[in-house]
Design goal:
Blueprint lengths: L3 H42 L1 H9 L12 H23 L3 H14 L3 H21 L8 H13 L9 H16 L15 H11 L10 H15 L6 H39 L5 H20 L8 H37 L11 H20 L4 H44 L9 H13 L9 H15 L4 H13 L9
Length: 494
C-alpha cells in the first residue's frame, strides 16, 4: 500500500504528458490549417501562382511558384522554427515542440530537411530519457504521432527524397521496439496459451488483405498489442509483440498505398472529364503516372498487397491516356473536316467553275490541313482524316485533266475556225497570201503549243504547215517573229 501514492503520481505525470503531446499535436494541426488557408488566399489572388502551386504539389515544393529569394527566406524561417522545436524538446515541452515542428514543416520548401532534423532530435531526446532511467513509454504518443505524420508525407516528397523519409521512419519505428529499461517491473499476469494460439494463427495468415478491412485490422492488432503488454514479458511475448507490430506497420503501409492508388484513380477521372489540351489535364495524368511509378517498386515488399490494383491502375492510365489522345485528335479532325467542307463543291466537275479555281481551292486545303494531320495521334481518327487527303488528291487529278481538256477543246476550235475561213485561199493568187497571214495571226497566235496534248498538237502543226506554205519567204519570217513574242493563253485561263 505504501507504493500506491507513488504509482498514482507516476500515472498522473504520464497522463499529463500524454495530454501535453495531444495538445501539441492538435495545435500543430490548427497552425498547419491556418498557414494553408493564408497560403491559398494569396494563391487565389494570383492565378499564375495557383497554377504553379498545383503543378508543384506532387513534388512537395510548397514554394514552387515563389521567387528564389522569397523561397530561401521561407526556408530560413522554417529552419528557425525547427531550432525552436528542438529547444522545447530539450526542455521536455512536447506541446510547444510539436507546435513549432508542425509550423516549420507546413511552410518549408524542403520538407525532408525539416523531417530529418526533427527526427534526429526526437531520437536523441528519447535516448536521453532512457539514459536518465525513464520509462519506455515516455513520449510514446510523440513517436506514434510522428510516424503517422511521416507516413502522410509519402505522397508529398519527391522520389529522390524517399530514402531519407524511409530512414527517418525506420529510426522512429526502432524507438517503438526498444525493450523496457532494466529498472522497470514487468507485469505479473501470465499469458493465456489460447490467446497465443490465436495470435499465431493470425500472424500466419497470408491471404491478401482487402482494402476495406485494413482500418479494422489495424485497430484489432493495436488492441492485441496493448493486451499483450499486460502479460509477463517473456521471450515468447516479446517475439509476438515484434511480429504483431511488424504486421501492423505493414497494414498501415498497405492502407496508405491503397489510399494513394485511389488518389491516382481520382486524378485519372478528372483528366478524362477535363479539356484534353488543358494544363490541368496534363497535370492529372502526370500525377497518376508518378504515383504508379512509385508503387510498382514497393509492392513486392508489401505483404498482402493485391497487385491487381496496380495492374488495374496501369490499365486505367493507358485507357484514359488513349481517351485524351482520341479527344484531342477528334478536335483536330473537326478542323480538317471544316476545311474540306469549303472545297466539297468541287467533288463533281462542273462548267460553272473554272478549273483553276477548283485547283487553287483544293491545293489550299492540302496546305492548311497538312499541319493539322500531324497533330492527330489516334490511329482511327488519323485514318478518317487521311481519307480527306486521298479524296482531295483524286479531285486535283480530275480537275487537272479537265483543265487540259478545256485547253485542247479551245485550241481545236481556233484551229478549226482558221481552216474553215482560210482554206478557200489555198493555191489562189498571191494577193490572198495577206488574208492567210492575217488569219494565222488572228486565230492561233495565242495558242501555247507546249500545253497541247499530242493529238491536238499534231493537228495544229498540220494546219499551220498547210497555210504557211502559201506565204512568201519574208512573210514567213515576219510571222515566225510575231508568234515568238505574242502573248499565249495558259492553263490557268481555264
Amino acid at each position: 500500500m505504501g507504493g500506491q501514492p507513488e504509482r498514482l503520481k507516476g500515472n498522473g505525470a504520464l497522463c499529463f504528458e500524454r495530454k501535453a503531446v495531444l495538445w501539441g499535436f492538435f495545435m500543430g494541426v490548427i497552425c498547419f490549417a491556418l498557414a494553408s488557408a493564408i497560403l491559398f488566399y494569396f494563391m487565389f489572388r494570383n492565378p499564375d501562382i495557383l497554377i504553379a502551386k498545383i503543378a508543384g504539389l506532387h513534388s512537395g515544393t510548397v514554394a514552387a511558384a515563389e521567387s528564389g529569394p522569397l523561397r530561401e527566406l521561407r526556408q530560413e524561417q522554417s529552419r528557425r522554427g525547427l531550432e525552436k522545436a528542438k529547444k522545447y524538446l530539450e526542455k521536455d515541452d512536447l506541446a510547444n515542440a510539436g507546435l513549432f515542428f508542425s509550423n516549420a514543416l507546413a511552410n518549408s520548401s524542403q520538407k525532408i530537411e525539416i523531417i530529418s532534423g526533427y527526427t534526429d532530435a526526437v531520437v536523441r531526446w528519447q535516448e536521453r530519457q532512457r539514459a536518465d532511467g525513464g520509462s519506455k513509454n515516455a513520449g510514446a504518443f510523440l513517436i506514434t504521432d510522428m510516424i503517422t505524420l511521416l507516413n502522410m508525407q509519402v505522397v508529398y516528397v519527391t522520389p529522390p527524397e524517399m530514402p531519407a523519409l524511409m530512414e527517418a521512419m525506420t529510426k522512429l519505428e526502432q524507438l517503438e521496439q526498444v525493450p523496457r529499461a532494466s529498472g522497470e517491473s514487468p507485469p505479473s499476469l501470465p499469458i493465456d496459451e489460447a490467446l497465443v494460439a490465436k495470435i499465431d494463427a493470425l500472424l500466419q495468415t497470408t491471404v491478401p488483405t482487402a482494402p476495406d478491412t485494413l482500418e479494422q485490422q489495424e485497430r484489432e492488432l493495436g488492441d492485441l498489442i496493448a493486451g499483450l503488454g499486460t502479460f509477463n514479458n517473456t521471450g515468447h511475448v516479446a517475439d509476438l509483440l515484434s511480429r504483431l507490430e511488424e504486421k501492423r506497420q505493414n497494414i498501415r503501409k498497405l492502407s496508405e498505398t491503397y489510399s494513394v492508388c485511389n488518389r491516382a484513380k481520382d486524378f485519372l477521372k478528372k483528366a478524362e472529364q477535363g479539356e484534353p489540351g488543358s494544363d490541368f489535364t496534363a497535370y492529372y495524368v502526370s500525377a497518376a503516372e508518378s504515383i504508379l511509378r512509385q508503387i510498382i517498386p514497393l509492392q513486392d515488399d508489401l505483404t498482402g498487397f493485391d497487385q491487381s490494383v496496380s495492374v488495374q491502375l496501369s490499365a486505367e492510365l493507358d485507357r484514359v491516356s488513349k481517351v485524351i489522345i482520341r479527344k484531342k485528335s477528334e478536335k483536330e479532325f473537326d478542323k480538317v473536316d471544316a476545311l474540306y467542307q469549303k472545297v466539297k463543291k468541287f467533288e463533281s466537275i462542273s462548267a460553272s467553275y473554272k478549273c483553276q479555281e477548283a485547283i487553287d481551292a483544293l491545293t489550299g486545303f492540302l496546305n492548311e490541313a497538312q499541319p493539322t494531320l500531324v497533330a492527330i495521334a489516334d490511329p482511327d481518327v488519323g485514318r478518317r482524316a487521311r481519307e480527306f487527303i486521298t479524296q482531295n488528291g483524286a479531285l486535283l487529278k480530275n480537275w487537272g485533266g479537265e483543265q487540259q481538256n478545256r485547253y485542247d477543246r479551245w485550241a481545236l476550235k481556233e484551229i478549226s475556225d482558221l481552216y474553215g475561213e482560210t482554206k478557200q485561199y489555198i493555191g489562189k493568187i498571191s494577193s490572198d497570201n495577206d488574208r492567210i497571214n492575217s488569219a494565222l495571226r488572228r486565230y492561233i497566235d495565242d495558242i501555247d503549243t507546249r500545253l497541247l496534248s499530242p493529238t491536238v498538237s499534231r493537228a495544229y502543226s498540220e494546219v499551220y504547215e498547210l497555210f504557211v506554205r502559201e506565204l512568201k519567204d519574208e512573210q514567213k519570217i515576219e510571222l515566225a517573229k510575231h508568234f515568238a513574242v505574242s502573248s499565249k493563253k495558259s492553263l490557268m485561263n481555264f
